[in-house]
Specification:
Largest sheet: 2 strands, antiparallel
Strand content: 5-15%
Strand order of the largest sheet: 1-2
Radius of gyration: 16 Å
Shape: globular
């Protein structure tokens, strides 16, 4: 983190650490709130095979919901799917990956 920060208790510190420091991309140092988001980031941002498939016009943007097999051609289409089909809030950080 930037600067000193105090926490009211150990649980608050553990939550902060878990969501901000535990799941970090080794390539670009971006942090994620969980393993799922880090894995999705690695696949969508740093995987060369996925990049090639995307350049060929294949759908590569996987739905965030576990068990949903929807794959979209663009992040905006995934966002629309998540809002319409899974009731994600419109203010969700869809750029999390």
């Amino acid at each position: 983190c930037h600067g000193e920060r105090t926490f009211p208790n150990a649980a608050a510190y553990e939550h902060h650490y878990e969501t901000n420091h535990r799941h970090i991309c080794e390539t670009c140092r971006k942090s994620f709130p969980g393993e799922k988001w880090l894995e999705l980031h690695l696949r969508e941002v740093h995987d060369t095979l996925i990049r090639i498939r995307r350049e060929r016009g294949e759908k590569t943007y996987q739905c965030f919901v576990e068990g949903c097999d929807r794959v979209c051609s663009r992040p905006k289409k995934r966002e629309r799917h998540l809002i319409d089909k899974h009731q994600y809030p419109k203010r969700f950080n869809f750029n999390i990956v």
